[in-house]
Amino acid sequence: MYCYNLKISIFSKDTHLEEIIRSICPLEGFKHEIESSDIADISRLPENDILVWDLPGMPSALRENCKVNRALIFCADADSIKNFDMTELGATDDFWERPFHYDRIAIRFRHLLEKIKLAEDLYLSNTCLSAITDNIPDMLWIKTLDGTHTFVNQEFCSIVGKNKQDVTGRDHCYIWGVSPDDPNSGADICRQTEDAVIAKGHRMQFTEQVKGQKGMRQFITFKSPLYDRNHNVLGTVGYGHDITDLENMYAENKILLNSMPYAVLIRDKDGKILEVNPKFEETFNILKEDVIDTFYDDWAECTFLPERMVNKEGFKEAVTKSPNNNQKIMELRKDDICDFLGNVTGQICIFRDVTIERQLEAQIVQNANTDFLTGLYNRRYLYEYVQEHCTGKKLSLLSVDLDHFKNVNDTYGHQTGDEALMITSRLLQECFPNDLVVRMGGDEFLILRIGSCSIQELEQGAQTLLDKLCSTYAAAENLRMLSASVGITQSHDSQEDIDMLLKQSDIALYQAKKNGRGRCWVYDKEEG
């Protein structure tokens, strides 16, 4: 989180000492700026974070010129160090004895760096703790086992009407200005709830009434036990939300939030999640405590697939990563939350499950574009597809028509006819897997190929289809009278109209039937 430039000065005639110090890598969050000199220069001492002094002098004199809370390493022989009084001994952070053991010096210097980092981390942690807790809009406190407050935040002080110095080290009755003998003071309730969380060993929620100088107040409190590293109980940590006035804006918004039929999430301007409603927990199968204080982008990345789309109403939609194909399509609506000055302080996100709607829409489109019996695309979709994908491209068309299909229907019934159509559709898709296969109506089918393709390739594909159809029909007793004819045409001009090509393929199909059926025929202008 921080990057500290550690200024290290070495005053020594021993050049190897500098080499050892330069060989030690900076710790995380630190950079080293190292300089050395063999001349004593007291005026440069205040600039240093770490001073290594290996020249004549006294530790106390050097300490007076160093920056406050900065490290001083004094180098001297063992006899000189033994003769220093307590003032001199206390002026340094470490003594390095001459003659130097460079391996030991490296270890001791590393320990000094770790000590400096620990102090910097502790300062940052305390600063962050104060900043975070003082920005919490509710009461926060830490108590020892005997009920003494050792830490409170600014909101706690505002509610009790005292400053931090006056509150720290005080008990419940003093802080709230009530008599210890008053049974309604709330002190007994506080002790009971704190004893309960210590006994349970985990966080618990309570509703507590406390008597103060401004009368009775009601709080929702959350309390947890506080342990040392040996898991001995030190005291408790408490969080209190004032719910005395149910007509305040927060309470109204909370009631509204929890009653909404959609999943709702509230985040601050930095993207941290502040609140979710019960519908949110239900929709995304997640507990509130697992998302509060996490960042929205991190949650969204884990919850949704990366692709996003914008629906016709202008709202984004995303698909959840739910397992077992139980995915949901969620519509997301976002609105800024502003303070009374118009500054954006956060955002409210509303998620609406539109899975069924999109499935129905897709089914409607599917029904409109496909043939109900065979599942192939229909004539209507053909024209849409050509308009969207075929402009300026070379097209090849194969019109397929079943021979003697009416006889099958008349002889064996429409159920057998439908079976023949479905068999034909399957074989068409097998033989032309990369082309658009369309049922034009009745027993008429069409194959559309986009891009350059020779007539020979089309004829080979058509003959393969006819052979498969013939062998398949022959294997079914009721379909043996069937065969198929194919008419082939190809555009020579990228601007040729699809209706003209359809007419040409029909002419070629007519010629195939005229010349004996069960064959393919290529369109010839002379025949048209």
Would you mind describing this structure in some detail?
Helices cover 39% and strands 27% of the residues. The chain folds into four domains: 4-132, Response regulator (Rossmann fold), CATH 3.40.50.2300; 136-242, 2-Layer Sandwich (Beta-Lactamase); 257-358, Beta-Lactamase; 370-522, Alpha-Beta Plaits. It has 18 helices and 22 strands. The mean pLDDT is 89.
Topology:
Blueprint: E1 4-11, H1 15-22, E2 30-37, E3 50-53, H2 59-65, E4 71-77, H3 78-82, H4 86-90, E5 94-98, H5 102-135, E6 139-144, E7 149-152, H6 154-160, H7 164-167, H8 172-176, H9 187-200, E8 204-212, E9 215-227, E10 233-242, H10 249-259, E11 263-268, E12 273-276, H11 278-284, H12 296-303, E13 309-310, E14 316-319, E15 329-338, E16 344-353, H13 355-369, E17 377-378, H14 379-389, E18 395-403, H15 405-412, H16 414-431, E19 436-441, E20 444-450, H17 455-475, E21 483-490, H18 498-514, E22 520-522
Parallel strand pairs: 1-2, 1-3, 3-4, 4-5, 17-19, 21-22
Antiparallel strand pairs: 6-7, 6-10, 8-9, 9-10, 11-12, 11-16, 13-14, 14-15, 15-16, 18-20, 18-21, 19-20
Helix pairs in contact: 15-16, 16-17
